[in-house]
Each structure stands twice: as structure tokens, then as C-alpha cells.
Amino acid sequence: MIRLVRAEFLKLRTTQVWFWLLLGTIAVGALLAVAVIAPSDGIRRPDQVPDLFSVFAVSPGYILVFVLGVLGVTTEFRYQTITPTVLQTPSRWAIVTAKMITYAVTGAIYAAFALLAAAAVGVPWLNAKDIPVHFGDSDVQHAIIGTFGVIALYGIIGLGVGALVRNQIVAVVVGIIFLLVLENILLAIPVVKHAWPYTPDGAKQAILFTHGDNSPVDGVHLLGTWAGVIVLLLWAFVPAIIGAAFSMNRDIT
Amino acid sequence: MTAVQEAAAPDGRIVVDRLSKRFGRKILAVDDLSFTVEPGSVTGFLGPNGAGKTTTLRMVLGLVHPTGGRATVDGVPYRRLNHPSRIVGAALESSSFHPARSARNHLRVMCTVDGLPLSRADDVLELVGLKDAAKRKVRGFSMGMRQRLSLAAALLGDPRVIVLDEPANGLDPEGIRWLRGLLRHLADQGRTVLVSSHQLNEVQEIADRVVILNRGRLVQQGSIEELTAGTDSVLIRTPDVEAMHRALTGQQVQVEQVDPGALRIRGLTPAEVGHLAFTGGVELHELSAQRFDLEDLFFALTAGDQS
Predict the structure, then answer these.
(1) In contact, A33 and A55? CB cutoff 8 Å
(2) Beta strand pairing call for B192-197 and B41-46
(3) Scanning A156, A203, A215, B56, which has its CA 20 to 30 A from the CA of B178?
(4) Number of Cβ within a 10 Å radius of residue B178
(5) Which residue numbers of B have CB closer than 8 Å to A's CBs?
(6) What is the ipTM score, two decimals?
(7) pLDDT over threshold 70, residue A213
(8) Are B261 and B241 in contact (CB under 8 A)?
(9) What pLDDT score does B222 carry?
């Protein structure tokens, strides 16, 4: 398994997509820091400081890592490198597991860059506004650790969707529409909206929620932190497992 | 022999046993196909485009699930082999590369999976004549270069069994000659070499044995000598066909009138035919030995099947 994971990292390093998505992650991380500080309803109180660190995962910054995960599988089908991959490693479980590890670790690395970008922009700015940033603060730590976990899991979610769908364009488009559009539409529909806490978005909000008034989102109550973790883990693992068991196993012609 | 002993002594054989594959309801791509590929020889896997060659190879390699039957290498289905790429080296289509990855990196990924030293990538690139292109992205590769890279990937794990699908496609005449030499060399080392092709005559020069497929069914298998034995003939042209017929009376021959001035004679050597014509006083305008080749054999075997 260690060899397979190393080979997956080598695959990732020897093409260019990781670089552009990392560049995007840093840029988006910095821009989102601006977005949570600059507006009049931005960070004004010390208890809002965790927002600086959770914004990348809360707002659509995570999409970049999701896309990276999707490409981790679908690129192999697009360029038919899946043939040599499967010839060397006939076990689809081994392939998918190695990719899950690779893309979770990569997701965490990207999260680190996003957090660094946010800190580089936000910390001096907030200090200038006399809002101190304490990394020892438990809510700040919660936001940072939560971001690492959520972004790593989005890497796996992307990978699972890729393994399930196999087709690159379909997987990226369907995944983005689901994550960015459908989840939000869900919140606007009465009754159905109570399913929202169990979507990736709802679970993620539950994980990252640290402060503020406990008012529910559009009248829907968030899950607890750990319930959110479990729901997001299911979103990460179920597509990957179904993908490894069925869709990856289909004929490769 | 027990199953345990079989597993302990890998024989390098590819055994295809009553294999069939149906795509959807109508298309029966492979139909009850059985054949064996022996080590130490080059076996040509022949048939026209769409005969089911690639589907068969993909079933042998565990990429496509058979509808019926099974295929084994060393007595085991491919998917149950341990470190399969160190036992079976396969080159299927020549397009299985990420266009933005260099040739060397493509092979290094494969080295990493199998725990081979990365230098092995450079060794096989040199072997297939791609040393100078090692760092170039595959995007800029010609068809022939991709074929060579596929071959390099197949040879990476020093496998005992080598399966190549249309390896000569896109190679120039020099490349084809080089490929022939390489395959001969690999077979002489005792490896099992299975090469598919729709270019029947090209394979005749490389292969020791052939398996001929048409419409998913086995047409014939055996060594080329066996299949073409007794099929050589002598063609003569003469203005006096009757005189030639008289000269041949009493001989154990088959005579076929090809056109009004030409006869095809089976059962005699060109020298014997020439001698009979000379002693019979028959004027000859042509006397030539006709080698019956695989293409003729193929059309003879599949005649009436081409409705």
C-alpha cells in the first residue's frame, strides 16, 4: 500500500494540475480573508476571529480540492492510464484506497496553504484594527483543525464521486452543481430543507460552527460537531466504496 | 498433478478455455474460444478488425469480465496473480498515457508500484530506442514512439509472458524489423510471446505459431508449417495447356486451371514441373513457385463465412 500511495503522489506530481489548483487555493484563501474582514458586516469582534480561518472551508474554497479529487480518478479514465494502473494493481479496492489516502493528505496540504494565505492577509490586518488573533484560543484552533479535516474529506468526496462516475466532465459538472447549487436550493424548500444538515454542506457547517448566536440556518438546526463529522465521513466513504465495488470494476475497454 | 504443484511450478502458459463475451444483447464479440499459448515461441493472434482479438486479450488480462469460460496465466486468472506486471507484460492500445507526463515519469510511476528501482525506467527506454525522448511529454510523441513506450512499459517488470496488441501499428519498416528481432529474442529466452495483428503476412514472418480468429470464433491454430504444409504450388503459363496436361498424366498432382493460359500445380516441386515440361516438349512462358501464405489460408478458412 505504501508503494501504491507513493505512486499516486508521483502521478500527481508529474502533471501540472496540482500546481494550478494549489495556486487557485492560495489565491482563493487570500481573497476569502479579504471578504470576511473588509465588508461592514465583517469581523469586528474578537469572538469572530475564527471566521478568518474557517471561511475557506465554509465558502466554496473547498471546491478546488473536491475537483482535484475528482480528477484523481477521472483523468485515468480520460487518458486510459487506468489500463496500466489496473494491469499493475488488479484490486480496485487497493487502487481506490491508495487514492483516498493520497487525496486526503493532499487536501490537508492544500488546507494548510489556504490557512497560511488567510493568516498572511488577515492577521496583520486585524491587528491593525486592534482585534487580536490568539492561536491559543480554542475556537480558533477548532476552526483550523476543522478546516484541515473538512478539506481532507472533500478530497476523498471528490475521489469517490470520480470513482463512481468515471467520466471526467460529468463528474466535475454534476459534483459542482450538487455542492454549490442543489444544496442551497434544498434549504429553500419547506419540509425537505430538514434534510440539509445531512448534506455535505450541512455537515461541514456543523463541524466548523463555533460561535455567534445559535440561530438555525433558515430555520434548520445544525447537527452537533461530531455528528457532522460522521455525516461528512459517510459522504466521503460511501461513494468511494460503491465506486470501488461496482463502477471501477466494470469492463475497461 | 495436483493444483498445488501447478501453482508451485508456473509454466508461462496462457490458457484460454471456452471464453465468450457478449456486449449488450446482440453483439457476441467472442464465442466459445479456446486456445493455448506456449512459452519459448512467438504466437500470432490473427484476425480481421473486429474479430474479437482485443476483447480476448482484455479478458486474458482481467480488464474485461468474460460472459463465459475463463482465461489463465500460469494456471491462475490474471486478477489473482501476485505482482502481475512482473509475470505478464502487456501493451494494449498505444494511447494509455497522460499527455502532459514525460515518458520517463510514466515508467517511474510503474516502477514505484512494483517496487523496482527507478533506473529500470531508463533501462527499458534505452532498450526500445526512446532514450533521447525520455524527458519529453508524451503529447509530442508520434504513433511509433507511443508504440515503443507501450512496449517499454510491458517489458519493465522483466515478465515471462508478453502480450502485445497490434504492436506494429504506426511503426515504420525499420521499426517493424527491429520489433521482429526483439520478439524473436524474447521468445528465444524462453518467454511466452502473444502478438495480435490484422496484418496476416506481417505476422507470418515473426510468428512460430498462429491462432486465427474470425467473428469471435477460433478458425485454426497451430504452427505455421503445419497450417501451410502441402499447400505450396507451382504456377505455369503456356500457350498449349493441353500439352501440359498430357505431360502431367500419371503424376500424383492436383491441377487447377487459373486462366486460359495458366495452370496451378500442387504436389510437385518447380524443378519437377520444369523437367516434365521439357521432356514433354511444352513451351513455357512462366514457371514460378507459389508460397501459400497466411492471407490465402485465412481466406480459404473463412470462405463462405463472409456473407
Answers:
(1) yes
(2) parallel
(3) B56
(4) 15
(5) 55, 58, 61-65, 78-81, 84-85, 88, 90, 92-93, 95-102, 105-106, 108-110, 112-115, 153
(6) 0.85
(7) no
(8) yes
(9) 86
